Amino acid sequence: MMKLSSAIALTGSIGSGKSTLVSLFSLYGYKSICADSLAHEVLDEHSSEVIAAFGDEIQDENAKVNRKKLGKIVFASLEQRQKLESILHPHIHKSILAKAAKLEEKGAWYFLDIPLFFEVGGKDTYPVARSLVVYTPKAKAIERIMQRDNLSFEDAKARLDAQMPIEEKCRLADDIIGNDGSIRALQQRVESYIRSLPPIGS
């Protein structure tokens, strides 16, 4: 597998503010590849396979997957979640690596926004140069998920609990940026992080 020597894996828990961080990095000219966006494309492309695995009750009127119904199933069961990941992840992995290969040619730092980076094997699966976790306390993350996705406290907590604890991700990461304050404070941390980045390959 090709080493992604210019790539930084950006990860964190759901509700931690990864998308906000990606937007801030883009202000400074940094490119990114979003695993969630690719996952939506893969889910649409392989909807018949997913429906066959989970039943017609997750099918919408266009013969595609109703994401909300699928979400209720997979976030309630580790076994069901692993079944979905076994269908989708090989396709997502292939797509991410293909896009990363093009960015590697530019010789500049870029980000792989992968929420489940550590859950799927970390650098063994995506051989990046560095990993960066955006940290948000659990209570704050649940609050954001409830507001963003219009979910109950119980559903938001279930989605957060389905992932590796943020403290464990922080332990595994090369770098950490805290996102527990204002957007201005986060931008200052982003600027500080950019200044701290070593030359590629060092």
Provide structural commentary.
The chain has 202 residues and is of the alpha/beta class. The protein folds into 2 domains: 1-30 and 109-197, P-loop containing nucleotide triphosphate hydrolases (Rossmann fold), CATH 3.40.50; 36-107, 3-Layer(aba) Sandwich (Rossmann fold). It is 52% helix and 14% strand. It has 9 helices and 5 strands. A 5-stranded parallel sheet has the order 2-3-1-4-5, with helices on both faces. Helix 2 crosses helix 5. The protein is globular, with a radius of gyration of 17 Å.
In terms of topology, how is this protein built?
Blueprint: E1 4-12, H1 18-27, E2 32-34, H2 35-45, H3 47-54, H4 67-74, H5 78-104, E3 110-113, E4 128-135, H6 138-149, H7 153-161, H8 166-172, E5 175-178, H9 183-196
Helix pairs in contact: 2-5, 6-7
Summarize the structure.
This protein is of the alpha/beta class and 202 residues long. 52% of the residues lie in helices and 14% in strands.
Brief descriptors of the model:
single chain; 202 residues; alpha/beta; 9 helices; 52% helix; globular; ATP binding; Depp_CoAkinase; Dephospho-CoA kinase; P-loop_NTPase; dephospho-CoA kinase activity
Shape: globular
Helix content: 40-55%
Through-space gap between termini: 20 Å
> In DSSP terms, counting alpha (H) and pi (I) runs of 4 or more, how many helices?
9
| Mean pLDDT over all positions | 92
Largest sheet: 5 strands, parallel
* Topology as a string of helices (H) and strands (E): EHEHHHHEEHHHEH
- Runs in which pLDDT lies below 50 for 5 or more consecutive residues are none
Work out the count of structural domains: 2
What spatial order of strands do you see in the largest sheet?
A: 2-3-1-4-5
Class derived from helix and strand content: alpha/beta
Strand fraction: 5-15%
Number of strands: 5
CATH topology of the largest domain: Rossmann fold
Q: What is the rounded Rg?
A: 17 Å
| CATH C-level class of the largest domain | Alpha Beta
